[in-house]
Amino acid sequence: xxxxVFQNMAPNAxxxxxxxxxxxxxxxxxxxxxxxxxxxxxxxxxxxxxDLQDRQARTNSDLKSxxxxxxxxxxxxxxxxxYRAAMLVPLLESYAMRAKSLLDxxxxxxxxxxxxxxxxxxxxxxxxxxxPRQLHTRAAVRVTAKGSYQQAVSFxxxxxxxxxxxxxxxLDIAAVQGSPAAQSVTFxxxxxxxxxxxxx
Amino acid sequence: MKSSSVHLNLLKSSELLSSSPVRLRVMLPxxxxxxxxGLALWWGILFTQLVLAKTQAQAIEDDLAAKNKAHAEAIQxxxxxxxxxxxxxxxxxxxxxxxxxxxxxxxxxxxxxxRVQLKELSFTPLRAQVLQPPGAKAPLFxxxxxxxxxxxxxxGLTTKETPVVxxxxxxxxxxxxxxxxxxxxxxxxxxxxxxxxxxxxxxxVEYTMPARRFAK
Lengths: 200, 216
Prior knowledge:
The complex is a heterodimer of chains A (200) and B (216). Chain A is α+β, with helices and mostly antiparallel strands and 200 residues long. Chain A has 4 helices and 4 strands; from the N terminus they run αααββαββ. In chain A, helix 3 (95-110) packs across helix 4. Chain B contains 3 helices and 6 strands. Chain B has helices at residues 24-96, 102-111, 161-170; strands at residues 116-123, 147-148, 151-158, 183-195, 198-208, 212-213. Chain B has a 4-stranded antiparallel β-sheet with strand order 1-3-5-4, with helices on one face. In chain B, strand 4 and strand 5 form a beta hairpin. The chains are: A alpha+beta (200), B alpha+beta (216). At the A-B interface, helix 2, strand 2, helix 4 and strand 3 of A face helix 1, helix 2 and strand 1 of B. Strand 3 (167-176) of chain A pairs antiparallel with strand 1 (116-123) of chain B.
């Protein structure tokens, strides 16, 4: 039927129809294979560009603030220095051994006798939020000795002067039967110490 | 007289021309050409924009690649600063909870009345920390509370109650680092010990100590 219509068309009209059909096909091809994929590609490229611009902005901001971060790091290092110096580190895998090496001169100076050291269970410190990777803990050491109340207090005063970050967790001074001048003295002392890691 | 005219139409239907000055057989190809040209232009614009976007992206990528090492170092420093800040926060919490009672204990010796003989002075043990609460999947890294309280127990012998009252009054002022005003007399009774031929009294007083608060 359509063929008949086409056959009956005037040559000019037929030419016009053919040209229109060819150009229409070209337009369709242009749209389907050039414009549409081009649009999609441009959209993807713009998204990528936007991501890159964000990354660049973050990078520039990070680099810009690196000077401040360096100053912060210096401040933090100096703020942490006294804690690091005060931390109890094990000696021959024993915290009590380390405590002995630190405290024996003080105990001797205070006049305490029969001084003994043993490890006590550590106590965890409350956590900041978010948690740091490296935790710190309260390392505890039990110190037992014989001496007078004044000698025990003298030891404590020397300890507080020499190691201001050592804390007295427990104290037990008990009279010894038949020896009024010498009491049985027990201190449980706490130091800051490195704890576990919250993540690798 | 009526005249009639004869109208002969010898044109084929395809040879008929429209009365419109715009001819469809001209306009259709023109429209199609314009559509093609428009699409080509659109594509051209898209292509140009794409090239521009790619060039820009490449420039940014080059810039990022050039700053990569410095940026990685900056990030590392920033993370380290964050970590150290959190560590410092925890250690400052420790410092806040440090108990230093040497001075009040030294002062205590000065205020103990002559007729009081101390038999025991002790801090009660701390409660065990619960780091594995029931139902928890994994142990906690730290306690859920940041306050610890203990009691100071003072036990001794005396001849009568007034020296003990005097001792308790003395502890009311200047011993804030060692005891609070909260106290309890656990016992006050006759003891088997004797002095100067008199039976002595034993006493035990329990004071609440200031709380150790592990927080900045």
